[in-house]
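Homework help board

Subject: predicted structure for assignment chain

Our instructor gave us this sequence and asked us to write out the predicted structure in token form, then describe one feature. I got the tokens but I'm not sure how to describe them. Can anyone check?
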Amino acid sequence: MYVNLAILAAFIFVYSITCGGLSRTPINGAVVFSGFGLMVGPLGLGVLDISLDTELLRLLAELTLAMVLFTDASNANLAVLKRNLQLPQRLLLVGLPLTIILGVGVGWLLFDTLTLWELALLSVILAPTDAALGKAVVTVPSVPAPIREGLNVESGLNDGICVPILFVCLALATGNSADESSTMLALHLLLEEIGIGLIVAAAVTVCGCWLFKQCNERGWVTNTWMQLPVLTLAVSCFTVAQALGGSGFIAAFCGGLLFGWLIKSQQKHKLLLAAEGSGDTLALITWVVFGATVIAQSIPAFSWHILLYSVLSLTVIRMLPVFLVLSGLKMPAREKLFIGWFGPRGLASIVFAVIVLDTHLAGATTITMTVACTIILSVLGHGLSANPLIAALASRLKKS
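My token output:
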């Protein structure tokens, strides 16, 4: 245990003092973290000895995702989002279902060992996007604001929307759907997850912000403890919603949006700095564990079917629905392709894969291997292409 902690502490120290230089290269943090985990894990040097505790990995990934969703949403520009609401609406309400359906169809052609509901599980697991992997796309000012805010909202809400769909497919795949029809089960879970998530987000965030303002006006909030309010609000939104049967991810994202609206911009920036640092640290540990355990165990099981599906998942399965649903908007084709490409898979897919891995389905291994392969390719592809494609898009926008 102490050796593992020493290795992680040393790596976090080195990364924390060099991340500024790395940010100017095409290599993103997830590439470095996963690569380091693979290098020191059992397939590499073998010095990092971490057993695959699925419950621990799931909790770590869930908390990391909740913090990232909350802080990203808090930074959202609601004025820009309000003017360009059509973009995330189309991506979530039409593009997401089309992506899941297309994913099932492609899986049907490639995997003859998976049942229909197992194929649906695989498609749902890989449908949510992770803005943290393509952070430059949603933070760099040279990317048009409507695209930044649209992708940020899409990645913030699609994982929460996919949670009830995942559990419906899981119930049908394992034969635990009882007498309730799949349509009614899906509707019931969707309304429950979203409804409870929204209520919890509103209640926790409004109460938290009111208490913070009261204490801050009296000078009770010190610099020493300034780093904790955002962290605890994010965790509270997520855990309370999960405990009540709702979607913690929707609660975290919507709570972040509300927090960003209720707190003054100057205070918000100061409060978010520490929270973002903590979220990044948790993300680092999650990706190192992912590289040392999941990737290390997945590599021997790779096949050309898995590799092909992973490539198609990041391209055709994602990009075609996005291009189609944006066809009615006055937007150049290059911007539609840009939005379609930047659908990286990350923390949400890890969480969903671990949930499926715990069920011991017949096709669980194939599903997990495919998810791991897709995330690896996403980490590399989206990480290496983010800065060059942003520069190319900015250059064309200047010319036009």
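Reply (TA_rk): Your tokens look well-formed. For the description, you could write something like this. The radius of gyration is 21 Å. That's the kind of observation they're looking for.
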